[in-house]
Design goal:
- The complex is a heterodimer.
- Chain A is α+β, with helices and mostly antiparallel strands.
- Chain A contains 3 helices and 5 strands; from the N terminus they run H-E-E-H-E-E-E-H.
- Chain A has one domain: Beta-Lactamase (2-Layer Sandwich).
- A 5-stranded antiparallel sheet of chain A has the order 2-1-5-4-3, with helices on both faces.
- The radius of gyration of chain A is 14 Å and the shape is globular.
- Chain A starts with a helix and ends with a helix.
- The model of chain A has no long low-confidence stretch (mean pLDDT 94).
- Chain B is α+β, with helices and mostly antiparallel strands.
- Chain B has a single domain, classed as Muramoyl-pentapeptide Carboxypeptidase, domain 2 (2-Layer Sandwich), CATH 3.30.1380.
- Chain B is built from 5 helices and 4 strands; from the N terminus they run αααββααββ.
- The longest helix of chain B has 27 residues.
- Classes of the chains: A alpha+beta, B alpha+beta.
- Chains A and B meet through helix 2 of A and loops of B.
Chain lengths: 124, 156
């Protein structure tokens, strides 16, 4: 039976629909604890690890320059949008990759709806 | 001018100091996400010791791999005087007795590096277990008084 966090991820994927590419809930040590991708060949573990560093660098840069706390981090490529945000006390982040057809505002809103539930569902 | 033996020692010290500097700098930049480098560093070391020291992983059990890794550390590289491997309820614990670099690792801890992501045994063990299909979260505890380093591998 799927864990609570896996169920939430599935619900999120269903609501996101056809724009979904991949998602991962990742500890700040780079280890993914839940997620999935439409592409079975996509190396989610590798992406999770690399984007953990991206998130940390973003926070550090903003902190050191007095620009405030990171709400989310957006990377736009020619193939996708990758949106990542912290969860809870920032010991985890949640990354979502969507197609370029996605409406970022909708993706952000949906992530905001699910963020607290996913945080509560993280096994501790 | 230094003797050839002294030069060897100085060169090793230079590499060690470079590693310490890199560890401090990377930790300062990215903190715990530096742990993403553990399997990268580990894989680089693993490839080398497979070639030079004959470590074989294919078809082996995790505890046998870690025992062999410990033996290579002691007998072939002198990283520690002795190693002990124990199974825990979450994975494995490897104790390195009279291990090289204990004061340096302790110093890194004191200077704020909470996860010793550049520890060679942590890195190599993690990479070796990954090759066996095991995802692990590792940690290192340094006991300078007892001159031991305890590396734990929690299997996820």
């Amino acid at each position: 039976m799927a864990s609570k966090i896996e169920q939430l991820i599935q619900q999120f994927r269903s609501e996101l629909g056809a724009d979904f590419i991949s998602t991962d809930v990742v500890g700040m040590d780079g280890i993914s604890i839940a997620g999935g991708s439409i592409d079975p060949n996509f190396n989610g573990a590798d992406a999770s690890a690399r984007f953990a560093m991206v998130m940390k660098l973003a926070s550090k840069a903003c902190g050191k320059t007095g620009m405030g706390n990171v709400d989310d981090n957006l990377v736009s490529t020619d193939q996708a949008y990758i949106l990542a945000r912290y969860l809870g006390d920032s010991s985890y982040y949640w990354g979502v990759a969507v197609t370029r057809n996605a409406t970022l505002g909708s993706v952000r809103m949906l992530m905001n709806e699910y963020a607290d539930q996913i945080w509560d569902a993280i096994p501790r | 001018m230094a003797t050839e033996q002294e030069k060897l020692v100085h060169r090793a010290r230079l590499w060690g100091l470079t590693t310490i500097g890199l560890t401090l700098g990377i930790w300062d930049m990215v903190q715990e996400s530096a742990c993403t480098l553990i399997p990268v560093i580990g894989e680089a070391i693993l490839k080398d010791i497979e070639k030079t020291l004959g470590l074989e992983l294919a078809g082996e059990k995790p505890d046998d791999v870690l025992v062999e890794l410990g033996r290579l550390l002691v007998d072939e590289s002198g990283f520690a005087a002795e190693t002990k491997l124990e199974k825990t309820d979450k994975g494995f614990r490897m104790t390195l007795i009279n291990a090289v670099g204990t004061p340096e690792f302790a110093s890194l801890r004191e200077r704020g590096v909470e996860k010793l992501f550049s520890h060679p045994v942590l890195c190599t063990g993690t990479a070796a277990l990954a090759r066996l299909g095991l995802k692990t979260r590792g940690d290192v505890v340094i006991d300078p008084a007892a001159k031991t380093q305890i590396v734990t591998f929690e299997i996820l």
